[in-house]
Request: fold
Amino acid sequence: MRVLDLIKTRYSVRTFDTKPVPKEDLDYILECARLAPSACNKQPWEIKVIQGEALKEFSAVYRKEGFKDAPVCIAVCGNHTQSWHRGDDKDHCDIDIAIVSDHIIMAATELGLGTCWICSFNTDIAKDFLKLPENVEPIVLIPIGYANEPAREKIRKPLEETTSFIG
Ligand SMILES: Cc1cc2nc3c(=O)[nH]c(=O)nc-3n(C[C@H](O)[C@H](O)[C@H](O)COP(=O)(O)O)c2cc1C
Reply:
């Protein structure tokens, strides 16, 4: 599939079927995550794959009906001690976590699986559940499973509103 077609295919899935995700699909998704680029190649991520009974317990972090039906949830966590900090001390952790998250999401899309970016979760519950040290932050949750809702039309700003050509 061409990248543009893959991008057009992805949409936020918030209602999932309980059908399991095949192990080989999960392995493929995790390999796509592993190969993500990062600032100074620091790879400051910790990827937690949560499934089964553990996921039932973990679903307290985000109390939305459809979320708990997804058979897999990946918590993408950022290690702020490992991440690259620029000379002005800007921490690039969030950028690296966004890239690895997008690799996960696009790989899942290619395999016909639904996903959703979730950032509005309870971080205290997530940190406790995942037993994360102070320097590791849970940044993105990605439920993965088969969509139980149809694709929607994409609503986006026109190119001219966000993009300018210089030179
Ligand atoms: C960084 C980020 C955080 C998001 N957090 C949430 C969230 O907590 N809950 C949710 O339902 N959707 C969340 N979304 C999904 C957006 O609402 C969605 O991507 C946007 O409305 C465009 O719709 P589409 O993904 O179907 O194209 C998030 C998206 C991004 C990129």
Summary: Residues 80 and 115 are 25 Å apart (CA to CA). Residues 93-110 form the longest helix (18 residues). Residues 13-150 form a domain with the NADH Oxidase fold (CATH 3.40.109.10). Residues 11-12, 14, 116-120, 152, 154 surround flavin mononucleotide (CB under 6 Å).
